[in-house]
């Protein structure tokens, strides 16, 4: 991935502040060289600065000389830009905001620049906003600088110039960057699909295991119910057999007693008839001889 940083600096006309401004420019330049090197876990494969460090210093010196001479009304304001292209061995994702890509550039020994891109386009990591100013010594001064940045017309003009420049760059890079982003999105979708397929397979396995367990439990309950019914049936049959045996025993006893009673009744009838016959014979006067 290529990290692009472009800064726009408004150089004031007053010549008395030129030495301090030049030292500040050098701090900014040194900040461009070290911004990526301090990042942990990322190695810089190559870097290219346009213009080069020496040429940038010469441009700043020339701009300061033109300000001192005041030879033309157009020399009241200079807009210097410097681009640094750094190629790393690791892909660095953009920090995507609601409307643009946000960025923060920490300078060496100075406060950080915080800005955002003009357009929400792919392929550009960060672009410094126009008319940036260093932090003041007090909060009141910071608020005053902030109000000036929002109300001064020349800052709007600077911003429109940088906006047009960035728009041209984005128009050239948007197609390729969109393809890269599309490929990255396709990769993420493929990974998401693979994850969903894996989860689906796991859920199907869990469902099959649950169904098999339910079938086994149902069969176990069915077998248990059948065994319980069989045992209950056996107990009922045993009770019925025992009850029938008792009934049959009582009937047998009754029949046995009834048979004995019939025999006794026959004997009693025979004896009673014999006695009546003997009494009748005796009443007729016939005597029985004893042998």
TrEMBL record:
Coiled-coil ranges per UniProt: 172-224
Molecular function via GO: isochorismate synthase activity
InterPro entries in the record: ADC_synthase, MenF-like
UniProt keyword annotation of Coiled coil present: yes
CC terms in the record's Gene Ontology section: plastid
Protein name as it appears in the record: Uncharacterized protein
A GO BP annotation: phylloquinone biosynthetic process
């Amino acid at each position: 991935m290529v990290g692009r940083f472009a800064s726009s600096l408004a150089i004031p006309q007053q010549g008395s502040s030129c030495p301090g401004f030049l030292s500040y420019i050098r701090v900014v330049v040194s900040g461009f060289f070290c911004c990526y090197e301090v990042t942990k876990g990322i190695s810089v494969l190559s870097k290219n600065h346009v213009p080069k460090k020496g040429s940038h210093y010469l441009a700043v010196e020339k701009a300061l000389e033109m300000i001192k001479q005041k030879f033309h009304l157009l020399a009241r304001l200079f807009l210097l830009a410097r681009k640094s292209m750094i190629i790393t061995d690791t892909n660095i994702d953009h920090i995507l905001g609601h409307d643009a890509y946000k960025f923060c550039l920490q300078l060496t020994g100075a406060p950080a620049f915080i800005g955002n891109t003009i357009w929400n386009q792919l392929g550009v990591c960060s672009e410094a906003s126009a008319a940036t100013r260093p932090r003041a010594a007090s909060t009141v001064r910071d608020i005053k600088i902030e109000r000036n940045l929002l109300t001064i017309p020349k800052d709007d003009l600077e911003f429109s110039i940088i906006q047009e420049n960035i728009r041209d760059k984005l128009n050239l890079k948007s197609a390729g960057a969109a393809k890269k982003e599309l490929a990255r999105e396709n990769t993420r979708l493929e990974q998401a699909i693979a994850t969903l397929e894996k989860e689906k397979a796991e859920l199907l396995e869990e469902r099959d295991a649950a169904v098999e367990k339910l079938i086994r439990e149902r069969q176990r309950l069915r077998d248990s119910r059948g065994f319980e019914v069989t045992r209950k049936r056996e107990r009922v049959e045993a009770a019925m057999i025992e009850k029938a045996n008792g009934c049959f025993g009582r009937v047998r006893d009754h029949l046995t007693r009834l048979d004995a009673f019939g025999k006794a009744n026959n004997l009693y009838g025979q004896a009673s008839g014999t006695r009546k016959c003997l009494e009748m014979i005796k009443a007729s006067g016939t005597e029985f001889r004893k042998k």
